[in-house]
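Continued from yesterday's entry.
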Amino acid sequence: MDVRIVGIWKLVGSSARDPEGKPVPRPYGPEGMGLVTFKPNGRMMAVLNDGRAAVPEGTAREYVSYSGTYTFDGQTLTTRVDGSSIARIALGGDQVRGVRFDGADRMTLTPPPLAVSGVDVQRELMWERVSATAA
């Protein structure tokens, strides 16, 4: 397993685009918050949230947390989910993401497109390393 991913990472940015490449609202709002931990033993957990003090009326606050085992081959991260806060992340299912590094302490995760209001949206989540060890 490629150990570059091991550690604690905080969410520092996100983007989302429709199939034509036009920007759409960012995952977890303009002030997204998140932490993800990858342990050397192959366990992981993630928590992501819209970090605004208040969201616009009629808007649901986006929140997700999940945990499981993972494998990482240097380009693809596969998480086998065994605990989740939301039904769309099926227990026992695999979450597959592309991974890019910008130096040792910046990482971008790209999940498969997600249907949002009937449109397939391509999301990217940008992370910064907080610690190279996972507590």
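--- second protein ---
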Amino acid sequence: MTKKILLIEDNNDWRNIFKSKLAENGHSVLTAEDGQSGLKLAEKEKPDLLILDLMMPILDGKSFLNAIKKIKTLRNIPVIIVSNIADPEIKIGSEGVNDYLIKTNTSPEQLLKSVNRALEKT
């Protein structure tokens, strides 16, 4: 079954690499370049999973997480953080965060495994 994934990533290269891997494995992938456009797209499309960078323009990842907690239709969507910064305030299992991957240490295959694990729980 095809799942709808929203990938919110400001870096074009990372966005394309991750989108390609997920799409070639049967997922429908929507993308946004910043947290604000990602939030609007999430509200419109109601994805099955969110993949979120933390360091982004306009609305950063932590602010995005805070915003979706206040939106009834989005607050229970699983989130995978993929970022180059480790933020000790964000914990796996809290705020809907299913996994926290460090981008430079994560292959597209590892992201796909994390996505599949998170989607199995939905």
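The chain has one domain: 4-120. The longest helix spans residues 12-24. Will compare against the first tomorrow.
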